[in-house]
């Protein structure tokens, strides 16, 4: 059984090759019959290759690549890549972190706990359910994007105040002090994405 945040099992080679060939053919709007005829294989065989119903020879694959105008190396290029650059975090499984000024009723869940020093952005799910809480202001390099999923609040950026309701988004320069000014309607769930750009390189 897979862990919730791991990818599905890797495609078998036949499935991977079939998908690649079919995508390339469809991208060029070529009919299955035409590709099969030019490649010198039967239409039924090409259909089976595309649907991973047969393991075909390298000779057939080479001829299909010629017809589709793609090098054999491209056909296999991504199959053996180690690991995925994608990270799936299931609901309520983000890593809980503590940030300066966080008190009861105010939690951050980090949604992209990537390993290593290189970090170009961070994504948090911020939950606030204590309407009387006071918040410090934050500042950091780069740009921040907020999307309010639930609740209502007034958000401060510099000397400007923005009233946000569920579904609203706010994008701003992170260098300018910012933070929640007033929690109008709790509970609040706020998606916060900080893009550090070149800072994380």
Automatic annotation (TrEMBL):
One Pfam family linked to the record: HTH_3
SMART domains, per database record: HTH_XRE
PROSITE patterns recorded: HTH_CROC1
GO terms for MF: DNA binding; DNA-binding transcription factor activity
One GO location term (cellular component): cytosol
SUPFAM superfamilies listed in its UniProt record: lambda repressor-like DNA-binding domains, RmlC-like cupins
Name of the protein in question: XRE family transcriptional regulator
Keyword terms, alphabetized: DNA-binding
Domain HTH cro/C1-type: 21-75
InterPro entries listed in its UniProt record: Cro/C1-type_HTH (IPR001387), Cupin_2 (IPR013096), Lambda_DNA-bd_dom_sf (IPR010982), RmlC-like_jellyroll (IPR014710), RmlC_Cupin_sf (IPR011051), TransReg_Diox_bact_type (IPR050807)
